[in-house]
Amino acid sequence: MLVMIFHCCTYLVLSQVIRTFREKGIPCDVVWMDIDYMDGFRCFTFDNNHFPDPKSMVDDLHSIGCKSIWMLDPGIKEEKGYFVYESGSENDVWIKKADGSPFIGEVWPGDCVFPDFTSERIRTWWARLVRDFISNGVDGIWNDMNEPAMTTTTKTMPESNIHRGDADIGGVQNHSYYHNVYGMLMARSTYEGMVMSNTEKRPFVLTRAGFIGSQRYAATWTGDNLSNWEHLHMSLSMVLQLGLSGQPLSGPDIGGFAGNATPRLFGRWMGVGALFPFSRGHSEAGTVDHEPWSFGEECEEVCRLALLRRYRLLLHIYTLFYVSHKKGTPVAAPLFFAGNNVCLTIH
Ligand SMILES: *[C@@H]1O[C@H](CO)[C@@H](O)[C@H](O)[C@H]1NC(C)=O
Ligand SMILES: CC(=O)N[C@H]1CO[C@H](CO)[C@@H](O)[C@@H]1O
User: Fold this and answer.
1) Is residue 147 annotated as part of the catalytic site, yes or no?
2) 224 catalytically annotated
3) Glycoside hydrolase family 31 TIM barrel domain location, by residue (predicted)?
4) pLDDT computed for residue 2 by the predictor
5) Domain residue ranges of the chain, discontinuous segments joined by +
6) Bridge partners of residue 266, in order along the sequence
7) pLDDT tens for residues 185-210?
8) Cβ–ligand 1 contact at 177 (below 6 Å)
9) Residues 238, 244, 249, 255: what is their CA dihedral angle, to the nearest 10 degrees?
10) In this structure, which topology does domain 2-74+116-338 adopt according to CATH?
């Protein structure tokens, strides 16, 4: 039950971090690999210095009961000789500009091209890359920046870009027509690649961008939030409302992504976050460490108790997910879901 657990997510992930969780008796079963594992932010590659042998690393993690989830973004570096760029160009998969040439936008690796996930042919092209990538022992995929986000001031691609969508979803249209479903279609294609790699296993995909129906393919987290009390507060209504909107598996970056948490904020957020359907800590590179023990003994104990509480409730949470799967009900539900017999007094 991959997703019922607390995920540790740092930029420099070592199995040592997991061993520390084990030694300290704090549950943690998934390591998340943010973009830094890649070679120069090129999707489907590994940084040779830090990840010379990903398969052995993953085997080592598996041997101590830990899974790993790896990021894939839609922006593909425009670079001669890079196998994904070459294959995509040969197969004519990139989103085009109004003049018919591939659109180039700036993201982490610099100039990038973007697969047109509105076409089934192109989703299959991506899914095959995912299938091959999974053979490194990858347990799940994390899709980020799939709004699609650019690092330039316009934030996303021009609305005049052209997608060659399949006829059943609208055919050839400009980007404004498909913008809102792009992220979901990427998650779908990633999901389909995981199925291709192993039909016996339930795929796990996390996506930042989504749409009505995304829950069929992926979980969602609430994006690059801030380490402050307001964002802790907002994360409650966001998770409840995502549930009411059909996405049962969601949660925020516990402790906040940007900025430094304080011991008090981190402990409180973990107390709440351990009961969210998707429960994961994550923080931006360059912030202070956000491991439970980074904030002193009291905070560590608060986190341990919160996460052990989640594990005690695992069977119940599993049941909620099963009911959600069958009936589409939220996993984290607002109080009024408790029915008419509950009399509430709010002070
Ligand atoms: C995109 O297409 C729609 C029709 O589907 C049209 O109304 C709109 O003006 C177009 N936008 C751009 C920027 O080309
Ligand atoms: C849960 C939460 O507070 N999410 C916020 C994280 O930050 C993004 C952007 O900075 C906001 O849009 C979210 O509301």
Assistant:
1) yes
2) yes
3) 14-320
4) 38
5) 2-74+116-338
6) none
7) 999 999 999 999 999 999 999 999 99
8) yes
9) 10
10) TIM Barrel (3.20.20)
